[in-house]
Write a structure and sequence with these properties.
about 170 residues; 2 domains; about 80% helix; rod-shaped
Length: about 170
């Protein structure tokens, strides 16, 4: 038999419960080189297993937790700021559109527009609250825009009905 290959020697050294095959045992008994290599692998494994386990420095867990909490708070603050800005922008655009419609259609439509504007403000606030708790601001912004468009189209439908009833 030729010498044991490096992989087999490493395997036997790392896992002491593994036994040599009859052919390997006969070879190791008659080959000082393989016997020395096998013993070196087993000794290395024993030395590594015997090393003391490192421990974390005093306060490591507390420091890491505090750092994580600060980063999380910063992230939430940024997310809330962006959500508030988006809600404010959408609300202002909706308000300007509604004011423009009120000016063009006269005071009879103002009451319908005021109700619609109130819905937009409530939805904007809801999006700020929800976005501050979820890490998916782009999805929330898309939802805010879609909802605002829906509210505006509902308002336009109400205006059309109010105009049809007035005639």
């Amino acid at each position: 038999m030729s010498h044991l290959d490096a992989e087999r020697l490493l395997e036997l050294g790392l896992e002491p419960e593994l036994e040599l095959t009859a052919e390997e045992a006969a070879h190791v008994a008659g080959c000082p080189s393989c016997a020395c290599e096998l013993e070196a692998e087993r000794q290395l494994t024993a030395n590594i297993v015997g090393l003391p386990r490192p421990s974390a420095p005093v306060g490591f867990v507390a420091q890491t937790t505090a750092r994580y909490q600060r980063a999380l708070a910063t992230r939430r603050a940024r997310r809330t700021a962006w959500s508030a800005a988006a809600a404010l922008l959408v609300g202002n655009v909706a308000a300007l559109a509604l004011v423009g419609l009120a000016v063009l259609n006269g005071p009879a439509v103002a009451q319908t527009l005021a109700g619609l504007l109130q819905e937009v403000v409530v939805l904007g606030h809801a999006f700020v609250v929800v976005a501050s708790k979820l890490p998916i601001v782009p999805v929330m912004l898309t939802g805010a825009v879609c909802t605002t468009v829906l509210v505006l189209s509902t308002g336009l439908g109400r205006l059309a009905l109010a105009g049809a009833e007035a005639n």
